């Protein structure tokens, strides 16, 4: 990189805003990662935060980005984070509220379903202050960072993804730019290139940049300031430039908690029983916690579903994305096939196993056809269709949201100032409410058609008019072209669609620490959505008949 530019950046580093920590304390469970820490990270410079593995650097970064609530389930923090020049508290602003903090995630957290330029456009469209025109277009940002535009995000190389992540973060016009482990998983040559890119970006845009890393060897050369998250003293301390070469000695490995020596000794049986007791207690607590939070979520749902999109254009785009996922052609195939199976079996076997066919059939044929029509329309097809929608579409949504949670895209949405419910929950609910009745109607269409075909094949002496007259007999249209009981069928569809949407979304949204957590959430979505659908059908059957 051009040394002259580098020097200029270090001299002119007066742009950007400082970030102050005031009496900060962060705890994970019972362990304190940082306590009583007050310091200011200077404006317009690169501050590198180093620390041993497990010291809490990523937790600190997520706290600075406003991604962690003060009283989270496992992570709690207190104190204040203020952005702006030192002065009266009212002149300083909290990052989480005003989304002034941009973050370049370790896993990049790009939106795979959008093109590289659309990723940047999304950030431009969600800038905090949209009354001021964007400094440059999305195309200009991707060109500046050297990202190929005519390829999908998933086809970009790791380095290109990182450049795109930086372009997207810069396009949102943050005052503070955070980098989470930017060189992790790279060889030393690629790591140096990333370090140069960070310095280059800093030189051009003059933001307050904070880089969290354990790779001090690669990133110290671009640092203006170095802070050490010291696991021994549990403090974030500034390391003066003349001390930088002793950083490796000061990076104390994180002490693991060991049980006290004077813990009472127990027999193997005793230990097993104690362990069983603890697990049972924990399981019960988890169950009540989960039930409690599910009830709370259900109570808050109407508020969460305010029909509000920060940008209508993007809202519609997400609705279309989820409509494709929930009600796309593969779902049509599924539902039509299910309709064909149930329509054929119900018609064919009802007549095939009729006892004393020669006598009973002439007497019962019209009654049986009317019953088949009624059962298919009011019960069989709605139950089968909604169970399939619950399993197939619920799993698809849990996977989509779960991957977004695990891959950090949900965090990325939040740092861009977008609440996940507005672009995820609301579009998902809209998609299910539209797609469920349409898919069910397709299944019913297929069941009706195959029932007619089967009847014609097995009763060649009766014409299609006979079938039609009796198949619909118990469904006589009372209100125009709609069949009798359509309100019940529609109600079941809507209640099922709405519930499947919410269960799948919240299962996907739950914290994910591994790919295994994503697959577990898909499995439990299938379990809970199908159970929910069965309960809905059971309860409506009691009311309906
Ligand atoms: N969501 C979470 N729930 C519970 N514990 C967590 C969570 N996130 C992090 N921790 C714990 O907090 C501690 C600090 O984790 P963190 O990821 O911040 O470390 P780090 O300094 O970034 O380490 P590394 O350099 O190895 O990534 C670890 O003991 C980790 O297990």
Automatic annotation (TrEMBL):
Family annotation (InterPro entries): AAA+_ATPase (IPR003593), ABC_transporter-like_ATP-bd (IPR003439), ABC_transporter-like_CS (IPR017871), ABC_transpr_LolD-like (IPR015854), P-loop_NTPase (IPR027417), Permease_MalE (IPR030802)
Transmembrane regions listed in the UniProt entry: 287-305, 325-349, 369-391, 412-435, 480-506, 526-543
GO MF annotations in UniProt: ATP binding; ATP hydrolysis activity; transmembrane transporter activity
GO CC aspect terms: ATP-binding cassette (ABC) transporter complex
Domain ABC transporter: 19-256
SUPFAM superfamilies linked: P-loop containing nucleoside triphosphate hydrolases
UniProt keywords, alphabetically: ATP-binding, Membrane, Nucleotide-binding, Transmembrane, Transmembrane helix
SMART domains reported for this sequence: AAA
Record bears the keyword Aminoacyl-tRNA synthetase: no
A UniProt-annotated Pfam family: ABC_tran
UniProt similarity note: Belongs to the ABC transporter superfamily.
PANTHER family for this protein: IMPORT ATP-BINDING PROTEIN, LIPOPROTEIN-RELEASING SYSTEM ATP-BINDING PROTEIN LOLD
Name of the protein in its database record: Glutamine transport ATP-binding protein GlnQ
Organism of origin: Novipirellula galeiformis
Classification of source organism: Bacteria, Pseudomonadati, Planctomycetota, Planctomycetia, Pirellulales
């Amino acid at each position: 990189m051009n040394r002259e530019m580098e020097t200029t950046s270090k001299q002119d580093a007066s742009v950007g805003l400082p970030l102050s920590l005031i009496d900060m304390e962060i705890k994970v469970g019972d362990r304190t990662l940082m306590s009583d820490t007050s310091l200011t990270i200077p404006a317009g410079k690169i501050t590198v935060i180093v620390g041993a593995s497990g010291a809490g650097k990523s937790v600190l970064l997520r706290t600075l980005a406003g991604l962690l609530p003060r009283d989270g389930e496992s992570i709690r923090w207190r104190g204040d984070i203020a952005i702006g020049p030192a002065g009266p508290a009212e002149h300083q602003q909290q990052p989480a509220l005003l989304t002034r903090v941009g973050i370049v995630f370790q896993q990049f957290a790009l939106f795979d379903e959008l093109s590289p330029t659309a990723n940047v456009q999304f950030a431009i469209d969600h800038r905090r202050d949209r009354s001021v025109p964007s400094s440059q277009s999305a195309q200009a940002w991707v060109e500046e960072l050297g990202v190929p535009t005519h390829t999908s995000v998933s086809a970009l190389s790791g380095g290109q993804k990182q450049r795109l992540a930086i372009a997207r973060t810069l396009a949102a016009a943050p005052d503070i730019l955070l980098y989470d482990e930017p060189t992790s998983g790279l060889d030393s040559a690629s790591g140096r290139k990333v370090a140069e890119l960070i310095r280059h970006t800093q030189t051009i845009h003059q933001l307050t940049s904070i880089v969290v890393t354990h790779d001090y060897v690669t990133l110290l050369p671009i640092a203006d300031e170095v802070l050490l998250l010291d696991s021994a003293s549990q403090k974030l301390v500034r390391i003066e430039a003349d001390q930088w070469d002793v950083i490796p000695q000061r990076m104390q490995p994180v002490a693991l908690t060991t049980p006290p020596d004077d813990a009472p000794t127990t027999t193997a049986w005793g230990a097993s029983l104690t362990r069983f007791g603890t697990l049972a207690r924990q399981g019960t607590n988890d169950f009540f916690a989960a039930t409690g939070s599910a009830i709370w979520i259900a109570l808050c749902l109407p508020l969460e579903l305010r029909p509000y999109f920060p940008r209508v254009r993007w809202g519609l785009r997400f609705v279309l994305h989820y409509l494709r996922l929930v009600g796309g052609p593969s779902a049509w195939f599924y539902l039509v096939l299910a309709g064909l199976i149930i329509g054929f079996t119900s018609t064919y076997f009802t007549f095939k196993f009729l006892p004393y066919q020669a006598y009973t059939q002439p007497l019962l044929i019209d009654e049986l056809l009317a019953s088949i029509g009624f059962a298919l329309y009011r019960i069989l097809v709605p139950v089968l269709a909604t169970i399939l929608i619950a399993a197939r579409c619920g799993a698809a949504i849990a996977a989509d949201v779960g991957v977004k949670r695990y891959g950090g895209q949900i965090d990325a949405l939040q740092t861009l100032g977008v609440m996940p419910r507005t672009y995820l929950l609301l579009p998902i609910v809209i998609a299910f409410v539209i797609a469920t009745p349409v898919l069910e109607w397709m299944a019913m269409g297929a069941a009706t058609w195959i029932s007619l075909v089967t009847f014609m094949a097995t009763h060649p002496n009766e014409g299609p008019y006979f079938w039609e007259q009796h198949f619909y007999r118990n469904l006589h249209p009372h209100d125009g072209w709609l069949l009798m009981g359509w309100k019940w069928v529609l109600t079941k569809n809507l209640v099922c669609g709405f519930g499947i949407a919410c269960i799948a979304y919240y299962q996907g949204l739950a914290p994910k620490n591994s790919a295994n957590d994503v697959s577990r959430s898909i499995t439990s979505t299938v379990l809970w959505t199908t159970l929910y659908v069965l309960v809905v059908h059971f309860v409506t059957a009691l009311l309906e008949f």
